[in-house]
Amino acid sequence: MISTLHLHEYFLFEHHQKRQREMEHQRFLTRLPRKQYRLIRRLAAMVGGLLMVCGPNLKRLEASQEQVAYEQ
Fold first, then answer.
1. Are 24 and 18 in contact (CB under 8 A)?
2. What is the pLDDT along the chain (72 residues), one digit of tens a residue?
């Protein structure tokens, strides 16, 4: 148990502020147009897919450039 009333009030105040921030964030998300939210998700998925496809090729390219640098 918290020993002083002051600390207890402080923790209640902090908890209340945290809940207010969470509610404000939720209100912000509900104000966003759904279409824009879907577009952002689609773009993120496309970038992720592109990185998964190009990742091994980029590693090979980096390795070949390192070999050329060592040979010179």
1. no
2. 557 888 888 899 999 999 999 999 999 888 877 777 788 888 899 998 888 888 777 777 777 766 655 555
Q: Are residues 38 and 70 in the same domain?
A: yes
**21 and 13 Cβ atoms separated by less than 8 Å:** no
**Cα distances (Å, whole numbers) of residue 69 to 15, 48, 60, 63, 65:** 57, 30, 14, 10, 6
The predicted model scores a pTM of 0.41
Q: 7 and 18, same structural domain?
A: yes
Pair (37, 70) in one structural domain: yes
- To which residue do tokens 């939720």 refer? 26
| Domain boundaries, position 69 | 33-72
The count of domains in the chain is 2
